[in-house]
Every structure is written in C-alpha cells, then in structure tokens.
Fold this protein.
Amino acid sequence: MTAANTPTTLAGQRSRSPRERLLDRLFIRLTLVLAVCTGVLLAFIVLVIAWRSLPAFQQFGLSFITHSAWNPVPGREDFGVLPMLYGTLVSSFIALLIAVPLGLGTAIFLSEDFLPPQPRMVISFLVELLAAIPSVVYGLWGIFVLIPLLQPVGQWLHTHLGWIPLFSTEPVGPGMLPASLVLAIMVLPILTAIAKDSLEALPPELRQASVGLGATRWWTIFRVLIPAAISGIIGGAMLGLGRALGETMAVTMLIGNANQLNISLLAPANTIASLLANQFPEARGIQVSALMYAALLLMLMTLLVNILAEVIINRLKAKYE
Amino acid sequence: MMNGATPQPEPVFRIENVNIYYGHFKAVRDVTMYIPKNQITAFIGPSGCGKSTILRCLNRLNDLIPSFRLEGKITYHGKNIYDPDIDPVEVRRKIGMVFQKPNPFPKSIYDNVAYGARVINYQGDMDELVERSLRRAALWDEVKDKLKESGFSLSGGQQQRLCIARAIAVEPEVVLMDEPCSALDPISTLKIEELMHELKANYTIVIVTHNMQQATRVADMTAFFNAEPTPKGGKVGYLVEFDTTKVIFGSPKQQATMDYVSGRFG
C-alpha cells in the first residue's frame, strides 16, 4: 500500500454506500470502547486497592511483609503478613510439586497410543471435569473425607519422622497438608490439559525421526517430545500456580486459619486469600487497610508469576525454534 | 520381474510376497524384490502406489500406525524382520531413515547429530563422531563454528543434510530416504544427490522419489510401482517392474513402465 490513503473506487466495482462505511467505522469504535472499558476496569481495581492500602503502608511500611502479627484489637493494632505470605507460597509450591508429575504423567499417557482413542477421550474428559467441581465442594470433601483419611498418615509421619521439622507437630486435622493436597487436585486439570495439548501439537515427524534412529518410546518421550513441548508444559504449570496462589474457598475450609508461622506441614496455617475471606466482615479502620495491603501483595505475586511464565515460555521458544 | 542379466551384488533385503493392510484396506499387494548392497535403489511411481509404505516397512516404522498389518516376508541378511522375536528398536538402529520434510530435533546442531549415538550409549569420542558424521554429510564446513546453535537456524537444504548426518552417526548399514529432496531447492537437491553418491561406498541407500530425473541421476536399480483400482473403489499399489535404472528408463519390459518414464501418465 504505497499509494495515497484516499480510497479509490476500482473500475467496474460497486462502490460501498456511505451507510456501509459508517457502520464499519462505528464497529471499529465500538470494539475500541469495549477494549478500553476492560483496561479501565483493571486499572480501577488496582488503583482503589493500592489507594485503600496506603494508610497501612504508611504505618507498617515494608516490615508488613517480614513481620508476624495480626492483632486487630483497637488501640493495639499490629499487622504483619509473613505467616500468610509463607502459607500462600508453601501451599502453592507443594500443590505444584504433587500436581506437575501427576499431570505430566497423565498428559503423556493420554497423548500416546497406549489406549484406543475412545477410552482416552473419556479419561481426558474426566480430568477436565475436575475443573468443573466448585471450590466449596472441594473444601467440603476435604473436611469430611480427606482430613479423616490423612489423620493416621499424619500421625505416622509425626511418630516416625517427627525429627524432620516438616512433621514436628501433632496432626490436628486442618493444616497445610490437606490444603496443599486439595490445591494439587484443583490445579491438576489445567496443568494436564495444557501439557497434553502441547504434546499432541508436536509434529509427528519428531517422533518418527527419533524412533527411526532406534530410540525407544521412553527415550523419545523424555529426550525429544517433552523438551519440544516444554514451553507449554511450563506455561500450564504457571497457570496452575496462579490459580493455587489465589484459591480461597477450599483453602480457607482446610488450612486451619492460624496466623502463625510454623514450618510443620501438619500444623494449621493460613494464606493471604484465606485471610481476606475470613477477616473482611469484622474489619474496620486500619485493619481494612491492612487487608487491602495484603490483597495488593497477592495481586503482585500472581502478576509476577504470570510475567515469569511469559518470560520462561518466550525464552524456551526462542531456544527451540 | 527380477532381471537375471543384471550384475547381482549381495542383497541386503529380500522382500517376498508382501501384502500390506491398514485395517481392512489393502494398500500394497504381492511385492517381491531385493535391495542390493552398497547401491542406490530408487522407488518411483505415481502417488498412492505404496512406494513410501514399502520403504517404511524396511525399518518397521509403520509399526507406529496401529492399524498396520503385513503379510509375507522381509528378510534382512536372511532374517525376517517381522518375526515375533525381532525387536523393532534393534532393526531401526541398523536401518536409518531420512524423511521428506527435514525434521531436526529442537536441539543444537551438535545434539542433533549426537542423539542417535546417545541412544545406543556410544562410548567413543562424541566430538569426533559428530565431526566425522557432519563431514560425511558435507555439512561440516558450514556449521563447524555454530555447533551450539539450534538445528532450526539452518536453511532447508542444510537441515536435510543435518538429518542425514544424524542418521549416519549411528553407523547404520542402510539409509532409507523418503523423497529427501522434495522440500528443497535445486541447488540443495544437487548437493544431496552428490552426497548420496559418496555415501554409497559405505551404505546401502533406498530412495523414494517423485522426480524421475533424480532416479536416473542417482539410482543403480529402480523399482517402478503403480496403483490399480480395486473392486471396492479403493486403490492398491503393486510392483510393476524392477531392474537396473538403465533398463527401466531405456528399454522397460512393461508398457506401463514405458508410459510412466516417458511422461505419458503419473
């Protein structure tokens, strides 16, 4: 398009009516307005939360992050979010630690031809259905099924491996372990689905080339297929991490909501999301501001995870293409 | 079909009465021929005549297709490679493959070549093996300064030579090539053809090609396949004629071969 910008009517072609052109322009404007609305909404939420957290920021500064206290008693207010920050990171990390091998294994199984296509489709559908279970149902299941099931396991861990700090406390029921396990189940579907899609999207020539060189199936999967699909696999894990960091309902029902830092996985703990859900009804004054500050930190964390995911994916893509 | 007048080097493969099915669909019928050692054998014929299918049977690559079934015998040095006690992985280590589209792994040039050697747990000097293989594939001078770069950074012709280097690094006896030049420009094609002539001394080469000039340029022996309609409305491939390239293109015994090589159909 080197010619002038003025539209020219081509010979023999019906020129477009002014009404048609007007509609065209209106449509472009409309999409622009809608796009701007979405952006403004995001900016509005972030700005309001940042604004409302300002009093807490002025009072506690950055020590809010490194300080363990949650005392809303008027006159003696003292807030620090370290235990919840720790709980958020550790519960999400454990969830990924469990979900990544499980999800990747499922994805490999479903992307290979171990089963005929129909049963394979049923299984991938079931895995994706895990995502359709509401969070509160996971919480309920956790309370009435998982926690009783884990009780003897926790007792055993404490009795026999109690010298390891991770199992140093008596299991009391709710705590880091059941919350992390339920989080692992909740992030499993997205992780599995994305890993499976990226494995299935690989060109069949890659597999043929490896098999044609005398590689076994396992060698082919671990040396060629997974490295080639790694950006998708890591991207899926990061999306799962984002979900785990912000998950509220199931966690708040299972984690015990103890605002104390305890290294033991058997002890009750807390996460930022769970803290917000539990504290907002009675909060007033500086406590609201402290909650807003904690919310801002949670948003920053998920933002960082998402940026990190993008960077990792782009790095690996550049390397492999 | 087999011509007794031609010089008969020791055959590496013997294909005996082979029928190939995909599910209930018969893709290829009654193929009987041999592949001579240290020569280039070309498979030519119109699309859908089963030449690629036969090629992929020679290293059991068709095993990747679940509905695939083979009747008859393909012997490699006298041993039927479709015997139940044969491990297809072992077969493929002896019989390498170069594909239609260059398909380097998403790894460095070095790791691409070293891949097969790592598969067989090669104990020798890996650097030396990589250099030797790249030299044999006539690619060394172009890539020696960027062995750590991705295989995808190369041009299409270079990628295909990288795939050839990768295939010969495991010291196979046979290299199968499935239309190796169809995605390449004429200069790259010529380079690959020169390379094939050089590789002939050490390897037995079987090449599927759509390009008849290419067959006359590179092949010692040529097999012409054709397809015929079946009563059920499908198509089944069969071997029409197998002889020296000179006979196939000069004085074929079958009218169909004559028609095909003179460009009257296909």
Q: What stands out?
A: The longest strand of chain A covers residues 68-71. Chain A has a mean pLDDT of 89. Chain A touches chain B through 22 residues (CB under 8 Å).
